[in-house]
Amino acid sequence: MSEPTARGSDHVQSLARGLAVIRAFNASRPELTLSEVARETNLTRAAARRFLHTLVDLGYVRTDGRLFALTPRILELGYAYLSSLSLPEVAQPHLERLVAEVQESASVALLDDVDVVYVARVATSRIMRVTINIGTRFPAHATSMGRVLLAGLAPGDLDAYLERVELRPFTQHTVTSEPTLRGELDRVRNQGWAYVDQELEEGLRSIAAPIRNSGGRVVAAVNMSSHASRTSLESARRDLLPQLLAAAARIEADLIAMSTAEAGPALSR
User: Fold this and answer.
1) Beta strands 105-112 and 67-70: pairing type?
2) pLDDT tens string 123-154
């Protein structure tokens, strides 16, 4: 691991070398000898020994006398950054990747009372009459993300939602019957995703998947929208669903990593 030579006058070389020692460990090299750390960081054995034992003293590295490895306390170093991230910031790069893969618009939304609220979005083209921005709200019962979020509610919370919502039609396809909606939500709950065909707007089809927290609770939804002229249920299931589920899993993994990092400082003491 070579170090850049051109540095400003404020550059602290010892700090840079200490960080290089930490970065020498990874998933394929979780344990290293002193000689291996020195080789990976281009440090002398004496310098590598000083940095390693300093990290041992601080609790970031453990050793059995021959092999060195990072400890869970190393999570403290990333905690401040991770804890400052919001769901939109976590989701945005995954939406960008998803849209690049399938060339359809993608969004993330939360449930707020009887509506879904968009918190992240990457659009490829405008396929709705209404422009969607961050903060746009749509009735949950007529949207794929809404179906996913409603399916994730506890039974009592779903009952309360159905007591206060007006299941009004937006197109001739909109589900407006409570028993029918309950049946749709059962289907979503069982299959793990939702597909809505022109219920919010004629010509608009969308497919959505849940985003869960570390406890398995549905906290958000991610979807892809397409014009009905180019997407059927069969093509959505074949061409969009696998990538959508993969994106949801990546967002979930990042959210779980954030919660793990948040617990890390307490667990490592």
Assistant:
1) unpaired
2) 886 555 667 888 889 999 999 999 999 999 99
- Same structural domain for residues 175 and 154? yes
- Segment 229-257 shows an average pLDDT of 85
The type of residue at 177 is S
pLDDT at site 176: 95
* Coil vs helix vs strand at 63: strand
The one-letter amino acid at 166: E
What's the rounded Cα separation, in Å, for the pair 162 and 171?
20
Q: Is residue 76 part of a domain?
A: no
Q: Which residues contact 151 (CB under 8 A, 6 or more apart)?
A: 185, 186, 188, 189, 194, 210, 218
For Cα atoms 255, 98, 137, give the angle at the middle one, nearest 5 degrees.
Answer: 70
Q: Are 200 and 141 in contact (CB under 8 A)?
A: no
- What's the half-sphere exposure (Cβ side, CA atoms, 13 Å) at 3? 20
- Residue linked to tokens 């550059």: 11
Q: Are residues 65 and 31 in the same domain?
A: yes
Of the candidates 118, 168, 166, which has an alpha carbon nearest to the alpha carbon of residue 145?
Answer: 118
| Residue with the larger pLDDT of the pair 12 and 192 | 192
Q: How far apart are CA 240 and CA 196, in angstroms?
A: 14
End-to-end distance of the chain based on CA atoms, in angstroms? 31
Higher pLDDT pick, 73 / 242: 242
* Residue 5 belongs to some domain of the structure: no
Asked whether residue 162 falls in the same domain as residue 55, the answer is no
Does residue 4 form part of some domain? no
112, 165 contact by CB (below 8 A): no
Measured CA to CA, the distance from residue 10 to residue 201 in angstroms comes to 58
- Scored b (16 or more CB within 10 A) or e, 164-173 reads ebebeebeee
